[in-house]
Design brief:
- With about 700 residues, the chain is an alpha/beta fold.
- The chain is about 20% helix and about 35% strand.
- Strands 16-15-17-18-24-23-22-20 form an eight-stranded mixed β-sheet. The chain has a five-stranded parallel β-sheet with strand order 4-3-5-6-33, sandwiched between helices.
- A hairpin with a 5-residue loop joins strand 27 and strand 28.
- Helix 2 packs antiparallel against helix 14.
- Keywords: Membrane, Transmembrane, Transmembrane helix.
- It comes from Mesorhizobium calcicola.
- This is Glutamine amidotransferase domain-containing protein.
Length: about 700
């Protein structure tokens, strides 16, 4: 019970002063001059004032509030190492049981580190979780906080946290742990394809160990070297970036006997491969409307260095001038097709026919260039069907189709074949989804027989229009019409000539994104996304090996012709291996080389300063070096605000004096007949004395 007195005037304070002040002055004057009855008048005035002030006794019924205690449980991946999960679970159960005995504590359990967002799994952020637990709690009701963690907390303040209550940390793990890890010191984000890239790395040991250690170097999952490093020293590394796009460079060391974990025995660097400018040789057999289309396309691509030659004299014009005197600058045939042919990424023959410009032997060099990995594109016109066709040279061994000698001059819409709808070069071409296609017609097709490779577009009378073929290690494309310039000129609305021509050129130059059979994987947050390009109807499921060695199977669903997608939510940060058929891919999910695994040794040092600043403590749950050691919990003691909050075997949590009002009882002192009687008695006594 809480008794108090309160004044509840019957009239307003100004009016009360207007009535009582003159009366009080008169009563005081009477007392000063000792007039007869002055005392009775003064007592009557006091009775009147008490009645007007209306004093009331209040009895408040209050319910004490509980102190809020936050129990922060570290569930980050480093807590899965060794025996820490068991220690955490035992400590959590024991503390909940002990805290449950005290009715004055409101315990809030917060498990931190289980979020699926990659940015929230980069580090162990327990103080962010602590702030969230106390967000709706007044400072006077905060009783304290207990953290169960391995001590690797990355948002620990240097001083006191933002609350005035004891902070206690119970550290999992053991005090004799050892570990060895590897990390990149310098890893550029970009590198030139086929060129050496300089990097540095360091192997670190918790016991200040020195000496040699073997480091395995892998690029995109394939081991390329074994380096001999010295523990503790920065070591140089030089790798060659094999291809354009995302490349994964991985360093790995063997697990040492007695080492805590091998999770951080690998380091990953993601490097985007950038190709140097691609060198393209364009040889036009004669000036024609489509020649500038190819030239403009290749010149507009900043990644292409173009060398272009055009034969200016048509074959039917014979004026007796020697062939080597027809140009201001001699056509450097030997330099281009013998000495530097390997420097070109792509050779294009645009409506070219065999004349004396190229010696017959040079065609054999071009065929050999293709067999050894080069790229050749034949943009055929009527010349390909004639007597001077390049198909009648040693180049024929590299060509995917021989001419029949027929030139079909007939209007038609270029259409995709069934293979073309799935092939990356022609899949999803703008305008191809309608019938007829939403692009202009062409008017010429060159007839061929026994085409090899893949026919991805067809022309008049369903004849082959675009052929893509592999010859040895190289690739050959053949466009069997010279009418593509109609799309570039906007005839009948034009067509996607830039999209088509660029895809053809980049497929020939082995652009990874245009491979028919390709498996890629990527991490989006904590989701592993898989993309499979294939010419098959169903590639089957994908098999996944997680960083911890577990095996998963993911079904791939058809997204569009030739493309199948799959995804799976993951809980582990690290490198995933994905396989489908004969193809494999690597993907890193989560932050690369996250601080969560940079140092996995349990420690008391990071939380000691904030804990001691609040009067709390830091202690280990198990001090023995054995992994199976039992958990020892301190006793929990409620303490007042000014008392100590920790001892050798106990931890204190503060209780609050806050309460909530449940009910109020009112007892008026001058209310009812009692007040009326006292007032009448005082007035009557005054009148009686005045009447004598």
């Amino acid at each position: 019970m809480n008794w108090s007195i309160s004044l509840e005037p019957l009239i307003s304070w100004p009016l009360l002063a207007l009535v009582l002040v003159p009366l009080a002055l008169l009563a005081l004057v009477g007392l000063w001059f000792r007039q007869r009855g002055a005392v009775f008048r003064f007592v009557a005035l006091l009775a009147l004032a008490a009645a007007l002030f209306n004093p009331v006794f209040l009895n408040e019924e209050r319910e004490p509030l509980k102190s809020v205690v936050a129990l922060i449980v570290d569930r980050s991946q480093s807590q899965d190492i060794g025996d820490r999960t068991r220690q955490t679970d035992e400590a959590l159960a024991g503390l909940q049981q002990r805290l449950g005995r005290f009715k004055q504590f409101d315990v809030r359990v917060v498990e931190a580190g289980k979020s699926q967002a990659a940015e929230e799994r980069t580090e162990t952020r327990l103080f962010g979780a602590l702030e969230g637990a106390f967000r709706d709690v007044p400072p006077s009701r905060i009783g304290g906080a207990i953290m169960i963690t391995d001590g690797e907390v990355h948002d620990a303040p240097a001083g006191s946290p933002d609350f005035n209550a004891p902070l206690h940390a119970l550290i999992t793990g053991n005090d004799h742990e050892k570990d060895r890890r590897i990390r990149f010191e310098n890893a550029p984000r970009f590198g030139l394809v086929g060129k050496p890239l300089d990097m540095t790395y360091r192997v670190i040991s918790t016991e200040n160990q020195t000496g040699p250690v073997d480091v395995r170097v892998s690029v995109n999952g394939e081991q390329v070297a074994v380096e001999h490093a010295t523990v503790g020293q920065a070591m140089p590394l030089q790798v060659t970036i094999p291809g354009a796009g995302r490349n994964i460079v991985e360093l790995a060391i063997d697990r040492e006997p007695g080492e805590l974990t091998d999770t951080n025995n690998r380091a990953i660097a993601l490097i985007d491969g950038i190709r140097e400018n691609l060198r393209v040789l364009l040889v036009s057999g004669e000036p024609h409307a489509g020649e500038r289309t190819w030239r403009n396309l290749l010149k507009s691509d900043a990644s292409v260095d173009l060398v272009h030659f055009t034969i200016l004299r048509p074959p039917e014009k014979q004026d007796g001038t020697p062939i080597n005197e027809l140009s201001l600058i001699a056509f450097p045939t030997r330099e281009l097709f013998v000495e530097k042919i390997k420097d070109f990424d792509l050779i294009i023959f645009d409506r070219y026919q065999h004349r004396d410009v190229l010696p017959i032997l040079y065609y054999d060099y071009i065929s050999e260039y293709v067999e050894k990995g080069g790229a050749l594109l034949i943009a055929a016109g009527p010349e390909y069907a004639g007597e001077s066709s390049i198909a009648r040279t040693p180049l024929m061994s590299a060509l995917p189709a021989m001419p029949t000698g027929e030139v079909v001059d007939k209007a038609f819409y270029p259409r995709l074949t069934d293979l073309g709808q799935r092939h990356p070069v022609t899949r999803g071409l703008d305008g191809s989804a309608t019938e007829p296609p939403h692009w202009s017609r062409w008017f010429r097709t060159i007839g061929v027989q026994n085409p090899e490779g893949e026919v991805v577009m067809k022309g008049a009378d369903n004849r082959p229009l675009l052929l893509l073929d592999r010859k040895g290690e190289g690739r050959v494309g053949m466009l069997l019409s010279d009418q593509g310039w109609l799309w570039a000129r906007g005839f009948e609305g034009g067509g996607p000539h830039v999209q088509l021509y660029r895809r053809i050129a980049h497929w020939l130059m082995k652009e990874p994104e245009l491979e028919e059979e390709r498996l890629t994987a990527d991490g989006r947050g904590m989701v592993l996304e898989i993309r499979r390009q294939t010419m098959a109807d169903d590639p089957g499921p994908a098999q996944i090996i997680t960083p911890s060695g577990k095996t998963l199977t993911v079904k791939l669903e058809k997204s569009e012709p030739g493309v199948f997608l799959g995804s799976v939510e993951t809980s582990e940060i690290g490198l995933y291996q994905v396989a489908n058929g004969d193809l494999t891919a690597l993907a890193h999910v989560g932050p690369v080389n996250a601080p969560e695994f940079a140092d996995v040794i349990s420690t008391e040092n990071r939380l000691r300063a904030p804990a001691e600043a609040t009067g709390g403590s830091v202690r280990r749950l198990a001090s023995s070096s054995a992994l199976g050691s039992a958990v020892t919990l301190p006793s929990v003691v409620p303490v007042r605000s000014a008392g100590d909050a920790s001892g050798s075997d106990w931890i204190g949590l503060r209780t609050t004096d806050d309460s909530v009002l449940k009910a109020v009882s009112r007892v008026p002192l001058f209310g009812g007949f009692l007040g009326l009687g006292l007032l009448l008695l005082a007035m009557g006594s005054m009148w009686y004395r005045e009447g004598r």
